[in-house]
Amino acid sequence: MAIRKIARMGHPILREQARQLTKEEILSPQIQNLVLDMVDTMRDAAGIGLAAPQIYESLAIATLEFKADNARYPDMGEQELLVLFNPKVTVLDEKEQAFWEGCLSVPDLRGLVHRPRKIAVDYLDQEAKPQRIEAEGFLATVFQHELDHLFGRLYIDLVRDTKNLSFLEEFRRYGNVKPAEEVD
Ligand code: NI
Questions:
Q1: 12-179 has which CATH code?
Q2: 135 has which bridge partners?
Q3: Which residue of 30, 70, 124, 153 is surrounded by the most CB atoms within 10 Å?
Q4: What separation in Å is there between the alpha carbon of 104 and the centre of ligand 1?
Q5: Distance from Cα 184 to the centre of ligand 1, integer Å
Q6: Are 137 and 97 in contact (CB under 8 A)?
Q7: pTM score, two decimals?
């Protein structure tokens, strides 16, 4: 187990499509160890999710975990540790919601991102068994953000109005910055 360095925006690996894993790979000690590194790295950075490309491994793996008292995202509910292999998102409700997002690969920024409000994720668990989870609200946004990493997308690509982009310090100082399109 080890805390790994996190790739930052501009590194090409963040723009690659991550490779899917076979069941044999998922069950292998190498991949199980990689997952332990991902969890260590995510927790050390106080992240609520991490995708393998963020630690320079172009593989379709994501981890998610957040507690109600997370320093970077307070008041967003809880999600116990979830490890997803080869995840695929299906939109269940296209009606959009907007949340202020941040990313360990795009440090010290927050941006307002619109995404479908309800989704399902099909994936393989750590025993390589197929699972399906449905998510709505903030959790749906977190899933879509993490799984986007596996397709070379960053949340910043989805910020529609750069007026809704803020440094974290200013975001905190000026409170919940009012989204530009809602300013009349
Ligand atoms: Ni991210």
A1: 3.90.45.10
A2: 119
A3: 124
A4: 6
A5: 31
A6: yes
A7: 0.91
